[in-house]
Design a protein that fits this description.
The protein is mainly beta and 207 residues long. The chain has strands spanning 6-18, 21-28, 36-37, 51-54, 64-68, 75-81, 88-99, 107-115, 118-125, 129-132, 140-144, 152-162, 167-174, 177-179, 197-204. The protein starts with 5 loop residues before the first strand and ends with a strand.
Length: 207
Amino acid sequence: FGTAFILTMMILFIGNTMAFGYIPWENDPFDSLSTGALSGKNGWTGTPSAQIILDPAYGSSSYKILKIDPAAGQTITNSKTITSYNNTIQSLDFLVRCDNTDPLEPTIAKLAVFASGVMKFQIYFGSNIRINYSSNSNDKYYLVPSTVSGQWYWIHIVMVIDQITGNWYAYAYVDGNYIDPSAEGMTNDIQPGAITGLVITGWDRPG
């Protein structure tokens, strides 16, 4: 087994972008939660669980991060049901850092967005950061082709969810820069349906 990388995440945030402003409807800054397993806090379930820890960069109980660091052969899974909204423009924001990244490292993690049990899209983290917009592993494009160990990345996903017109697509930004999927011959389509849940997964594969 390779040495597991540590994925840390701050400020998991989803909201509706409306004409009159921004309405948050899912907010997990982690700072307000106690340290330990994420499961059982703020609606999150699942074991083995990702861990809320003090941010070592600050050494203060005021700043916490979520660490996804599975043991060898282990799979971490945390899920959360959230209120669904149709016919809106929505956004998903979070900061993510991958430590000890190695192209040969078998450990990987992802954040998946679901609509009534169907995966709309998922974002993978590790030696790179990429988005998959279907269950087909080939339907992907890279947000960060090669991550730098210890560097924070701000991921901003804008989602159009419109069941009236049948438009379902997403725009991805990294540190404020738009990532054009057409550069890799891909589209920005996502699966239909209102968002109903989030799943965080981290696993260590034999390697």
